[in-house]
Amino acid sequence: MKLQNYVRGEWIEGSGPGDALVDPVTGEELARASTQGIDVAAALDFARSKGQDALGKLTYEQRAELLGKMAEVLAANRAEYFRISQLNSGATEADASFDVDGGVYTMKYYSKVGRSLGAGKRLKEGAQVPLSKTGVFAGQHFLMPVRGAAVFINAFNFPAWGFCEKAAAALLSGVPVVVKPATSTAWLTQKMVADIVDAGILPTGAISILCGSARELLDEVREEDVISFTGSAQNAGRIRSHANVLKRSVRVNSEADSINSTLLGPDAAPGSDVFNLFVREVIREMTLKAGQKCTAIRRVLVPRSNFAAVSEAIAAKLGEVKVGNPRNKEVKMGPVVNKTQQASCFEGLKKLKEECSVVFGGSESFQPIDADPAKSAFVQPTLLACEDGASAKYVHDVEVFGPASTLVAYDDLNDAVDIARRGLGSLVASVFSSDPAFLRDLVLGIGDLHGRVMVVDPSVGKEHTGHGNVMPSCLHGGPGRAGGGEELAGLRALLFYHRRFVVQGPPSLLEALSQESVDASLLYA
């Protein structure tokens, strides 16, 4: 099977052998993907013209209705998406739900909140600004949807959610999308797009997908386009520094590497509710999707006085996790996505072991349940320990994108803040404590270098949404190493797909332009 590309309103198979998509449990080839022979420039032009023209005629409310219909189609095909996730990503049912159900929920969320924007086609920001003594000349700020295409270059770990969360905000803004999923797991994204196309929901040109190499995609983007990238910091840098992207000042949103932290307060004694919630969250983040989440916990910061207790508690729980073929109902954690990713994890673990001891796991000869280690891509859940976080290097710099976390001891609040900040910018940090003063000072100490800080005290209990769970109503992104971008945050995500400009002229003209505009303050409601 070769995955087809959908461009210029038609399905086209790329030429040449393409790249293989495999089952990470058996090593079996499942499909191939190729963009060879696809006219990328023509595909973008078609989206900018046909797609943009059709979406631009619709109001925000009408586009929200389209999102709702898309969500219904995706929800109806949930079982097939789970099947593909298991085959192509080695996903357990919980893994597939996190990706697929999370994506559908996000689409539904934007459909619901998008209706609040009503019959407008653009946004008006603030009141008129007088620019003359007599009032015959004034200014009005507007936010206009970009007239280009939204180009998505997505990561392998969330082929469903990554597509849905970006497409929801772009299409609601009236901007056509061109999706380039990571080749290794492109099957699921391609199937979702195919189901949407078959349902005839979107106007022609509103959605396109390229399955395979991006090839000359960045050579063809223009100043009216936007790029949203999820992946490694290295690739993010390549996109930002691409000659054509620089020349045309193309807007880029990036979500990149993130050495996320969770932190246990010094007041949380072993056996306490907060202590147990903390251990539970570390286990979940290490094993869900085999740790292949940009928001997963990489550093576990604990008071030096409780270092041994935390080590023992996490190791004991990891020993209960059954790792292997997700077709086995007893299995709770599957493989990483392929042999390449497995090798990357092993290489990262080797570096971490140079300055850390191994508390649990770490064996390359690990025997998974119902799988051949020689053919599969499993990485044993691995907990490492670093008692000198101040002098460590790799702990704060190397992200093992798999089921691995490192315990790091801290001595006091200032030490904890310094260690957390060594991540040089993260998507998320979580803090577990019952001490209001400690929580306040810790949040203020790290907030500027984190996109999200989750705080759990006894009043929160098990009702929190999770360290690694991204909610569409809240900001997703992070500074520095994490990419410097922002996604989601409710309707505020639409800002990336709009351009701000001011019109200066007679108030009567400004009033006329405002008639099809929606108050931009709704984005912050």
What is the total tally of β strands? 23
Indicate the CATH architecture of the largest domain: 3-Layer(aba) Sandwich
Looking across the biggest beta sheet, what order are the strands in? 15-16-17-14-13-18-19
Residue stretches low in confidence (pLDDT < 50, at least 5 long) are: none
Q: N-to-C terminal Cα separation, in Å? A: 47 Å
Indicate the CATH class of the largest domain. Answer: Alpha Beta
How is the topology of this model organized?
Elements: E1 2-3, E2 5-7, E3 10-12, E4 19-22, E5 29-33, H1 40-56, H2 60-76, H3 78-89, H4 93-114, E6 122-130, E7 138-145, E8 150-153, H5 161-173, E9 177-180, H6 186-198, E10 207-209, E11 226-230, H7 233-240, H8 243-247, E12 251-255, E13 260-264, H9 273-287, E14 297-303, H10 307-318, H11 339-353, E15 357-360, E16 382-386, E17 404-410, H12 413-421, E18 426-432, H13 436-446, E19 450-456, E20 475-478, E21 485-488, E22 498-505, H14 507-514, E23 517-519
Parallel strand pairs: 1-5, 6-23, 8-9, 8-11, 9-10, 11-12, 13-14, 13-18, 14-17, 16-17, 18-19
Antiparallel strand pairs: 2-3, 4-5, 6-7, 7-22, 15-16, 20-21
